[in-house]
Design a protein that fits this description.
The structure holds three protein chains of three kinds. Helix content of chain A is 45%, strand content 21%. Chain A is an alpha+beta fold. Chain A folds into three domains: 118 residues, Beta-Lactamase, CATH 3.30.450; 83 residues; 149 residues, Heat Shock Protein 90, CATH 3.30.565.10. Helix content of chain B is 45%, strand content 29%. Chain B has six helices and eight strands; from the N terminus they run αββαββααββαββα. In chain B, strands 1, 2, 3, 4, 5, 6, 7 and 8 form an eight-stranded antiparallel β-sheet that branches. In chain B, a hairpin with a 2-residue loop joins strand 7 and strand 8. In chain B, helix 1 packs across helix 4. Chain C has a single domain, classed as Response regulator (Rossmann fold, 3-Layer(aba) Sandwich). Chain C has five helices and five strands. Chain C has a five-stranded parallel β-sheet with strand order 2-1-3-4-5, sandwiched between helices. In chain C, helix 2 runs parallel beside helix 3. The radius of gyration of chain C is 13 Å and the shape is globular. The chains are: A alpha+beta, B alpha+beta, C alpha/beta. The interface between A and B is medium-sized, with 25 and 27 residues.
């Protein structure tokens, strides 16, 4: 015959039965094993005698059940019903942590009541939950440390570079005295190197911000053509220095979009700059078209050496440049394409590349007209 | 069966006393001051509860469900919006349960205990009125949608079933959590209670 | 027999208390708001006040404090559903003569009135 006691043993639950005076009437195998007290020595004795450490709250919970109310004792609020040493390996808690339900029972004789306490060992579950919570809190702190670092680094790096460029400007303008002809070029180089350094710093910071999930998108109403022209102006100096051509083809004279202007400009400057950097002769063409009503495509074609097909996959990975004869022969952080793609994805789009060795490469950024 | 203003008022008082008792128990268990609002009641046939409930609560709902019998027979459910329930469990356990903003197993248990205490305190009030004992099933906790709750409350009982919807708010520290109870009981049980309440001043 | 003022926003609670007190022979006046209670105490001069704590306009504790400030001498028996110890302490500190938990039965209410009127506040 299946009794509550044996059912408790099958389900791995302690079953403690008491009568209305809190005298023990049932003590199953689980309880024997957990407490080391044999049922034959416990049944028939008052619970307070069997468990002298029984807390007042446990006692009143049993009394409540005996009077007819179902009682739930959650581990988080009560800890345990009866003190049992913690299972080995889980010494975080001095006592076994228990989840308890106490049910009123009616004896066969009718009116007479008692209660049955069903006790579940949840020490392991609780330990895991606490560990998870601690790990989450640590992760949150680490994240905050990262954000704070990024914020202060931004300032710490930009300020001296800005100051350096400002001084170069002041010197060039003759504020500190007349500048001779032979001095002009070195001053110009300081400025240009400063600008270059600032560009690298911005790229690193953007990369770090994206990694930390801290880049936010600020959409405004813009004209894609205007932004493209601004990007072209930014790379113009490098284009003329290398005696390359830079041309454009626009599907319309004006293409309204709702997206983050600064990020779009950065993406285009990155792609154009990249094209210029790897092209020795010929030219760069940027085409802005409308593949569909909801998308805008920015295609940057160059006449550089092209990219081998096995390199195409890795080209967007951070810190890599195509292998082969061009490996590390070009300065740069190796972050440009990675950042460009991440920024494009932030704006709801993506970048694809097609290339032919000896002919050139085509990088196409496709963006939704309305940032999602 | 329509309850007049006086009968509704008397039922509100009944739940008011029950809720305050529950709040006192919870305060004692947690060591924190927990306050409940004077409840507002809506009584209607069970077939008509969808609209008033939809106006009150939605989304993911944490529910504690108990069946009661004896003096009166019926279904009782405590409903709290999941995220608020997680916050409540977290605050009541000093941040230990539901740390991640979701109801983990420990937090669900805490909620089961809260539900057991709140529903029990209110329904024993019924028993006190009729001077007969009320017994309760073990509380069951679920995370479900309003649709699922409505489905589980609908019965094919031969007798007309009524729903008493009780709206209140639990407050501890700076947190205010809206809580709703739905008590589904047969018309005969409901009228026995309102008659007993009316006779109290006789 | 002392004149009793009942203050409670629940019509049901007022009716129950009125029933108990009238059967015991008291004269009963009732109001549903805190401000009504203060006005009635100034004008109607009850001998005892039976006060609930949760009125809609101002709370019972504030009523207690205002009555003390206005030197109203009638003892106040608070009858409330709020059975938390901290509430009872606050109520007694505000000058109540007694605190009863709702629902108060006939015996509790009538003996509380008898005791507070006869004895000290």
């Amino acid at each position: 015959m299946v009794t509550l006691q044996t059912l408790g043993d099958v389900l791995d639950v302690g079953v403690l039965c008491v009568d209305p005076q809190l005298v023990v009437t049932g003590w199953n195998d689980w309880l024997e094993r957990a407490t080391g007290k044999r049922a034959s020595l416990v049944v028939g004795r008052p619970l307070s005698e069997v468990e002298p450490q029984l807390r007042p709250s446990s006692r009143s919970a049993l009394e409540q059940a005996v009077r007819g109310t179902t009682v739930v004792m959650s581990q988080r609020l009560h800890g345990y019903l009866i003190p049992i040493p913690s299972p080995s390996g889980l010494e975080r808690f001095a006592y076994m942590q228990q989840s308890v339900r106490i049910l009123p029972v009616f004896s066969d004789a009718g009116e007479e009541r008692g209660a049955a306490a069903l006790i579940q060992d949840v020490t392991e579950r609780v330990t895991r939950e606490d560990e998870l919570r601690t790990a989450m809190e640590a992760a949150q702190i680490a994240n905050k440390v990262k954000s704070d670092f990024l914020a202060s680094m931004s300032h710490e790096l930009r300020t001296p570079i800005g100051a350096m460029s400002a001084y170069a400007d002041l010197l060039t303008d003759g504020i500190f005295g007349e500048v001779s002809g032979s001095q002009r070029e070195p001053l110009q180089r300081i400025k240009s190197v400063g600008g270059h350094l600032l560009g690298i710093v911005e790229q690193i910071l953007t990369f770090a911000r994206i990694e930390a999930g801290r880049e936010t998108v600020r959409p405004t109403e813009i004209d894609a053509i205007d932004i493209t022209k601004e990007a072209m102006v930014a790379v113009e100096p490098l284009v003329s220095k290398k005696h390359l051509t830079l041309s454009s083809e626009f599907a319309a004279s004006s293409i309204p979009m709702r997206t983050d202007a600064i990020k779009l400009r950065q993406i285009l400057i990155n792609l154009l700059g990249n094209a210029v950097k790897f092209t020795q002769t010929g030219g760069i063409t940027i085409t802005v078209s409308l593949p569909s009503e909801e998308t805008v495509a920015f295609e940057i074609k160059d006449t550089g050496p092209g990219i081998a097909s096995h390199d195409l996959k890795r080209i967007f990975d951070p810190f890599t440049q195509a292998s082969g004869s061009l490996s590390r022969s070009h300065e740069g952080t190796g972050l440009g394409l990675s950042v460009s793609r991440e920024l494009t994805r932030l704006l709801g789009g993506d970048i694809v590349v097609a290339s032919e060795l000896g002919v050139g490469s085509v990088f196409t950024a496709v963006l939704p007209r309305q940032v999602p | 069966m329509n309850l007049d203003a006086f009968e509704l008022d008397s039922l509100s008082e009944l739940f008011n006393v029950g809720l305050h008792r529950a709040a006192a128990s919870l305060s004692e268990i947690t060591g924190q001051r927990i306050v409940v609002d004077m409840p507002k009641l809506i009584v209607c046939p069970i077939a008509e509860i969808e609209k008033p409930l939809t106006d009150l609560i939605g989304g993911e709902i944490a529910t504690v469900h108990q069946i009661f019998g004896g003096a009166v027979v019926g279904d009782a459910v405590l409903l709290i919006e999941h995220d608020k329930a997680a916050l409540l469990a977290k605050l009541m356990t000093s941040g230990e349960a539901a740390g991640g903003g979701r109801l983990d197993q420990s937090a669900r248990e805490v909620l089961a205990e809260i539900g057991n205490i709140v529903l029990g305190a209110c329904l024993s009030g019924f028993g006190d009125m009729l001077e007969l004992p009320v017994s309760f099933s073990v509380p069951r906790i679920h995370i479900e949608s309003l649709k699922s709750i409505l489905g589980s409350l609908r019965t094919d009982a031969a007798e007309p079933q009524y729903a008493v919807i009780v709206a209140t708010q639990f407050r501890l520290s700076e947190l205010a959590v809206d809580g709703y109870m739905v008590i589904a009981i047969p018309a005969t049980s409901l009228s026995r209670i309102t008659h007993a309440l009316a006779e109290r001043f006789g | 027999m002392p004149k009793v003022l009942i203050v409670d926003d629940s019509a049901y609670a007022r009716r129950v208390h009125r029933g108990i007190l009238e059967r015991a022979g008291h004269e009963v006046i009732e109001v549903a708001t805190g401000t009504g209670a203060i006005e009635t105490c100034m004008l109607g001069q009850p001998d005892v006040v039976v006060l609930d704590l949760s009125m809609e306009d101002i709370g019972g504790i504030q009523v207690l404090q205002t009555l003390r400030a206005l030197n109203v001498n009638a003892p106040v028996i608070v009858v409330s559903a709020d059975v938390q110890r901290s509430t009872e302490q606050a109520v007694m500190a505000a000058g109540a003569a007694r605190f009863l938990a709702k629902p108060a039965n006939a015996e509790q209410l009538t003996s509380a009135i008898a005791q507070t009127v006869a004895g000290v506040r």
